[in-house]
Amino acid sequence: MISTLAIRSLPEGPKAWFAGREEGVCDHASDPDHWKQDRKEGPRHFLDMEPYGGPTNLPRTLEAAQARVGGDYYRHGVVPWIIQDRWRDLTEAFREGDPAKVAFATAILGHYIGDAHVPLHTTENHNGQLTNQKGIHSRWESGLVERHIVTEDLTVLPAQQDATFLARPWEWLVAAHALVPQLLEDDRAADRTTPMAGQDKRRTQAYWLILWASQGPTVKQQLQLAGQHLGNAILSAWIAAGKPAPPSAK
Ligand SMILES: [Zn+2]
């Protein structure tokens, strides 16, 4: 959904690179989740804020992160720096002039940008395990989306040029982190009013409807913002690469 929104958000110049490749981008958007057999991959998808004392004073470089928390810095997550690296890959792909590489780099960058908009990717309590709400991670980022959202329900927010794009991931993470307390409270409220069914403590349909009523607007907002921010990333990478035309159009 995020890559579809992003491609639709683009002006004609960069959009031309994706003609006939929209599906290819979507097909690869989940690839990084399948790379997690590599133990270094997991922390690329999140940034825990608690080890740094919360959102107000996050490290901006890996060196600063290491200086603050020592050798454990990697374990606390590195997603903003991975977004920077993958954005540079996309810029390079535009420079090389290879539409297949542009499509793949977009898919991968979009994955990590999406992760940076998920509130539970910004906290040590990433699965509600510290507040007795285990499973909330997938209930929020998969359960609600799969049950209630189709791409056509989402609004395309036009991509904007951003000359300082590389500074943005921290802002997205801080904004997502601010959504954590309400998200957890809404899950608890839905559980209080809808006892779980069966021995495996399945959530009932009523649980999902209540959680959707309270968190649905937030889920949609974060998807739309992630789509726009991936659009900004593509537009800015294309401009940084010198606004190249795709090979077929040359
Ligand atoms: Zn991920």
TrEMBL record:
SUPFAM superfamilies for this protein: Phospholipase C/P1 nuclease
A GO term, aspect molecular function: hydrolase activity, acting on ester bonds
Protein's UniProt keywords contain Nuclease: yes
Keyword line: Disulfide bond, Endonuclease, Glycoprotein, Hydrolase, Metal-binding, Nuclease
Name this polypeptide is given: S1/P1 Nuclease
